[in-house]
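Re: weekly structure request thread

Next one in the queue (230 aa):
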Amino acid sequence: MSDSDVTLLDRPIWSALTTSQKHLAEGGPRALRYPVDMTPFADMVDMSAASFAALGDLLSGSEVAALFTLEPVDVPAGFKVVLAETGEQMIGSPADSPLRDAEIVTLGAADVPAMMALTALTKPGPFALRTHELGTFLGIRAGGELVAMTGERMKPGNFTEMTAVCVHPEYRGRGYAQALLAAVARQIEARGEIPFLHVFSSNSSAIALYQRQGMWIRRRLHVTALMKQE
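Done, posted below.
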């Protein structure tokens, strides 16, 4: 893993939309975003007024653009900030964590209602109707109900982001998140790619879980979600 490869993670959204996921990119040379029914993530080539104008042109109505940046975003007039937090970017290979009493299954389009319900309950981050198309999602069911899942989202270069790590409150403490993270990481590594993830800095319990599994914090990013001002 060369330094030039790792720098793709400094701007994971832009890097993904100009490399492995450029076929999904909407926009032009100054601003790009994913389809809104996949994820609200967007980025700009720089923080100039012209780039913010291009980002604004991509948004309509109540659509949100979520940015991951190295520095805080100086938001110009014409935009409203709906979220401004920091997140930790973590990288590494989560240790295997076998399950004795549950089976990991691959999720698909038929599972979207259950995936939407689980993410609405657990709030792991943005999850939309087509998020599952960004990569493979794995889950665990109990009594016919989806109770845990994890999957893939951004793909900057040779890196793949693990996302939507969530477990139903009634099924926590059983090792489901650890097992799913490890399973997703193994499928990423089988393709010759490197797993990483993002977690809000305030989520100390999740950060501790990921560290126990062998991941480490690479750097802190600023997470800013914007809407066009009415």
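The chain has a mean pLDDT of 95. The chain has two domains: 3-88+223-228, 90-218.
Next request, please.
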